[in-house]
Design goal:
With about 140 residues, the chain is mainly α. About 60% of the residues lie in helices and about 0% in strands.
């Protein structure tokens, strides 16, 4: 089943090593197909980079919050707010002495809010129309 699915998206690409000066004749349709492939490849790279940047921002916020915690219970509360199951008995070795800065519920909410959110075309159009309506008012 996987092989059948993958066959739809296969493409043979001629590499540039050892044949830089060679030109290969192709039809206009073949060239347009290559351009489509190149654009699809660029979109994959861009989307992947956006996804990785989002994850890195979430990790940075998580590190900042965890460094501020002093009580084990606050770290467990944060994990629970993020939907991560933590067995407290595995973490008993940690020393709990105090907390000063971040509220775990707020930090969890902020990290969840940073996740990539995809808007449909219709959602974008609706948001733009609402913005224009507010600008007129």
């Amino acid at each position: 089943m996987t092989e059948k699915f993958d066959k739809q998206f296969e493409l043979d690409v001629i590499g540039t090593s050892h044949c830089r000066s060679r030109a290969i004749a192709c039809t206009k349709e073949e060239y347009q197909r290559f351009e489509q492939w190149r654009m699809a490849k660029a979109n994959v790279v861009s989307t992947h980079q956006t996804w990785i940047n989002s994850i890195m921002k979430q990790c940075d916020q998580l590190k900042i919050g965890l460094k501020a915690y002093r009580y084990l219970s606050e770290g467990i509360e944060l994990a629970t707010e993020l939907g991560i199951k933590v067995d407290e008995s595995e973490l008993i070795r940690t020393n709990s002495t105090g907390l000063t800065i971040y509220n775990p519920a707020n930090l969890a909410s902020m990290i969840k809010g940073m996740k990539n959110k995809n808007q449909t075309r219709e959602d974008k159009i609706k948001a733009r129309l609402e913005y224009q309506k507010q600008s007129v008012n």
